[in-house]
Amino acid sequence: MNQRKHISPQQKVIILREHLENQIALSELSEKYHVHINLLYRWKKELFEGAAEIFSSKQNKQSAAEARSAERLGEKLREKDKLIAELVQDNIELKKSLNGDS
């Protein structure tokens, strides 16, 4: 009875990269790595189906990071506006006290 051969994700990537970059036929890779050709087709299908998710998650992460950054900048701006308003109010009070206005 044949035992199943375990192939790590890294090995799968190496095999598929060899197919895609070097344009080696899947039938040749099947013989070279002693893997059934149907497995190679399945890995290739999974790779391309998962690729869209990888790229979309990067965009989601990037937009979330941009949103956090924009929120922090908005908070800083609100703090500065508050500080400026306090300084203007203090300035007005000082001018009134120097001019003798009560």
Question: Could you outline the blueprint of secondary structure elements for this entry?
Answer:
Elements: H1 9-22, H2 26-33, H3 37-98
List keywords for this structure.
102 residues; single chain
Explained architecture:
- This protein is an all-alpha fold.
- It has one domain.
- Helices cover 82% and strands 0% of the residues.
- The longest helix is centred in the middle third of the chain and has 62 residues.
**Major sheet summary line:** none
Q: Summarize model confidence as the mean pLDDT.
A: 88
Fraction of residues in β-strands: under 5%
The DSSP helix count reads 3
Helix content: over 70%
What's the number of structural domains? 1
What overall geometry do the principal axes of the alpha carbons give?
rod-shaped
Structural class: mainly alpha
Low-confidence stretches: none
Distance between the termini: 102 Å
State the total count of DSSP E strands: 0
What does the radius of gyration come to?
Answer: 32 Å
Order of helices and strands: HHH
Please summarize what this structure is.
This protein has 102 residues and is mostly helical.
